[in-house]
Amino acid sequence: MDRLEFDNRFLRELPGDPDDSLRPRQVTGACWSRVRPTPVAAPRLLAYSSEVAADLGLSPADIADPRFTEVFSGNALLPGMDPWAACYGGHQFGNWAGQLGDGRAISLGEAVTPEGRRHELQLKGAGLTPYSRMADGRAVLRSSLREFLCSEAMHHLGVPTTRALSLVLTGEDVVRDMFYDGHPRAEPGAIVCRVAPSFIRLGNFEIFAARGEHDLLAQLVDFTLRRDFPELDAEAPDRLGRWFEEVCVRTARLIAHWMRVGFVHGVMNTDNLSILGLTIDYGPYGWLEDVDPNWTPNTTDAQGRRYAFGRQPEIAQWNLLCLARALAPLLEDPEPLRAGLERYVDVYSDAYRRMHADKLGLREIGDADTELVQRLYRLMHESEVDFTLAFRGLADVALDAPSLAPLAPAFYREDLRARHDPAWRAWLADYAARALRDGEPVAERRARMNAANPRYVLRNWLAQQAIDRAEQGDSGMIDELLEVLRRPYDDQPGREAFAARRPEWARHRAGCSMLSCSS
Ligand code: AMP
Ligand code: MG
Question: What is the Å distance from ligand 1's center to 258 Cα?
Answer without folding.
Answer: 23
